Amino acid sequence: MTFFALPLTEHFYKRPCIQSYSILCSLFLAHKQALCIELATIKITMRLTSTVITFLSFALCVFAAAAPQVMDSKKKKYEAKFHKGAKGSINFKSNSKGEVKVSAKLSKLPKEGGPFYYYIQDKPVSSNGSCGAAMGNFNPYKGKPNATEAAEMEVGNLSGKHGSITKKSLKTSYADPYLSLNETDPAFIGNRSIAIQYANGTRFACANIVQN
């Protein structure tokens, strides 16, 4: 069987059926292109939305809410004894509400450089007595150093919540509902330390918080 190839003349392309087919092809291609653009836009939008959600989730984790008040402290006692830079101790025990009661009795503080600030530190003091090994302030809920509300402060910022030391000695007691003596609580203060520092931020005394 023999096949003959017919020349596709200009008259052939002008036939109505061929023109209609060409129009349909053009419309299809245009629609396909628009659909691709739309799908690409949706894909980009989804990626941006996913990025925003991820960022917000990260922000919520990093910039956490205010510290909760806890009343889960067990009937245990902890103490931080100072022998260098200051004399005395700061004691922690649970009260009848399950909160932590803090009792501080310090003397022989420096004559100058005040007011003095004292903080619970994240780590214990090293065996050689270095206060630097205690790292930064105890801050399990990402509190703000310049916060004015107790719940938004660093958990370890005792002087911020209860007042700085303005004399050469300190004798005070108070309940701090943001501390815990429960080992399972994020605000547990056991096996950490306390540092006392000058107004310029330099630490001059520190002691480990140990159970007694």
From TrEMBL:
Q: Which GO terms describe its biological process?
A: superoxide metabolic process
* Keywords per UniProt: Disulfide bond, Membrane, Transmembrane, Transmembrane helix
Residues in Superoxide dismutase copper/zinc binding domain copies:
87-197
Pfam family of the protein (one): Sod_Cu
User: Which domain of life does the protein's organism represent?
Assistant: Eukaryota
Concerning Gene3D superfamilies, the annotation shows: Superoxide dismutase, copper/zinc binding domain (2.60.40.200)
Q: Name one GO molecular function term.
A: metal ion binding
Transmembrane stretches in the record are 48-67
Provide the protein name.
Superoxide dismutase copper/zinc binding domain-containing protein
Q: Which source organism does the UniProt entry give?
A: Zygosaccharomyces rouxii
